[in-house]
Write a structure and sequence with these properties.
The structure is a single chain. This protein is α/β, with parallel strands linked by helices. The protein folds into 3 domains: 2-64; 72-82 and 339-445, Alpha-Beta Complex (Aspartate Aminotransferase, domain 1); 88-333, Type I PLP-dependent aspartate aminotransferase-like (Major domain) (Aspartate Aminotransferase, domain 2, 3-Layer(aba) Sandwich). The chain contains 18 helices and 15 strands.
């Protein structure tokens, strides 16, 4: 118990760190560290106080720094949901910063000198890119699905294939969103097979919509049958297609074996409404985009929930500039698309470059590894993208210890582990990331 009596009072740390850190932060850090150290002593897990000052200072720094921070994505998952999904293009980020740090004409018509609509900044761009008669933008695609159903099918039936009742991110499920919207779900077909006749039999005077949901986060093979969106048009009711991943381009024309439907392709087939995300394959900020027939979009806009789900100025700024890159034919500037379309030979050159730089860290064993990346973000689940990684083993740390330690670097490096080998996938490394990865490993040498 003598060790417990040797723990300094909070006042000692206030004196030691006076003028270096804010007093309130030092108090909080000292109390948290002291409580932890007391527990460790009582549990027999600590027999020294030599590191106490270091622990208090580390805790003060942690409390001083922002929780949300930049990380390096070395996982190879391009649209990494845990790491913020799509990265904005440099030009887009600069535009968002300008709008964020200055006043803007968010809801002001500069020509007329009176109040305008915040959506006017993106609706024309989206209409041109998708061919839609009308468009609306909300905070995310789950919000878009809710708003469409709440507006057009409240208290009425919506017919959906049982095989399309998917669960999206965060454990939210399409049936739950439908119930919350006030629509009544009518399931048709089976998990793996649904025919047009299944829809026909389910229609009633209470049916308001036929809904199709793209299975963007899983795929089925084998004894499978589904009804395409264009076939559903023969039912004579509005067809709403939740495409999920929000692709504006036909990615198959770039050599990707993609089954992701684009907004434009669906609308050209005659689908009444389409919705999708802004921060997945579109490569912009988080948003839910609704596009389709003008009269339906107008009803959606008038729904009072549109205001509750509306997007803020930073989202609109990011979306507008991302859409302008598409209109200018500069989609190659969008990091998400650029990473997805990288060729294996380009990635091999990048991996060799990183491997050479890492050779200056003496504790590492390095390997050039041919691997596969994934799109992620609930899009193109069947697609494996050939890539190259730098495989790393550390002479002192186990692979799991190495992976954890890299997450404590500044900036943190998030990698993946396969068969006891740490893999740094260069597909998802952005400009300047290689140098930071090397610095992270060098930092480990001094630990």
């Amino acid at each position: 118990m003598s060790l417990l009596r040797q723990i300094p009072q909070v006042s000692k740390w206030l004196e030691d760190f006076k003028g270096k850190y804010p007093e309130e932060l030092v108090k909080r850090a000292a109390r948290e560290v002291t409580d932890r150290v007391r527990r460790e002593i009582k549990e027999g897990k600590r027999d020294t106080l030599e590191d106490l000052r270091q622990l208090v200072e580390e805790r003060v720094r942690a409390l001083s720094s922002a929780s949300l921070k930049r990380v390096i994505n070395a996982t190879g998952v391009v649209v990494n949901t845990n790491l913020g999904r799509s990265v904005l293009a440099q030009e887009v980020g600069e535009f968002v910063k300008e709008v964020a740090t200055r006043y803007s004409n968010l809801e002001y018509d500069l020509q007329e000198g009176r109040r305008g609509s915040r959506l006017s900044h993106v609706e024309g761009l989206l209409a041109e890119l998708t061919g839609a008669e009308g468009v609306h933008v909300v905070n995310n695609n789950a919000g878009a699905v809710y708003l469409v159903l709440n507006t057009l099918a409240y208290g009425k039936e919506v017919v959906v294939s049982r095989g399309e009742l998917v669960e999206i991110g965060g454990g939210f499920r399409i049936p739950e969103i439908m119930r919350a919207s006030g629509a009544r779900l009518v399931e048709v077909g089976t998990t793996n097979r649904t025919r047009l006749s299944d829809y026909e039999k389910a229609l009633s005077p209470e049916t308001a919509l036929v809904m199709k949901v793209h299975r963007s986060n899983f795929y089925m093979e084998g004894f499978v049958e589904e009804v395409q969106a264009r076939e559903l048009l023969s039912l004579g009711l509005p067809v709403y297609y939740d495409v999920g991943s929000g692709s504006l381009l036909e990615l198959s024309r770039f050599g990707l074996k993609s089954q992701e439907p684009s907004f434009g392709a669906c609308l050209r087939q005659g689908v009444s409404l389409v919705s999708g995300s802004g921060d997945k394959l579109l490569g912009g900020p988080q948003a839910g985009i609704i596009a389709g027939k003008a009269e339906l979009v107008q009803k959606i806009r008038k729904n009072p929930m549109s205001r509750a789900l509306r997007v803020d100025k930073l989202t609109l700024a990011g979306l507008e500039m991302t859409l302008r890159l598409y209109l200018r034919g500069e989609h190659h500037k969008i990091p998400t698309l650029r990473m997805l379309l990288q060729k294996p030979e380009e990635l091999k050159v990048k991996a060799r470059s990183l491997l050479r730089k890492l050779r200056r860290v003496p504790s590492l064993e390095l390997f050039l590894v041919k691997e596969y990346s994934r799109c992620g973000g609930g899009a193109m689940p069947e697609l494996l993208l050939e890539t190259y990684c730098v495989g790393v083993k550390h002479r002192r740390l186990s692979t799991s210890q190495l992976e954890r330690a890299l997450r404590q670097a500044e900036p943190p490096v998030v990698a993946r582990v396969k068969e006891d080998l740490l893999l740094i996938d260069v597909r998802t490394l952005l400009e300047g990331d290689q140098e930071d990865v090397v610095r992270a490993f060098e930092w480990l040498e001094g630990e």
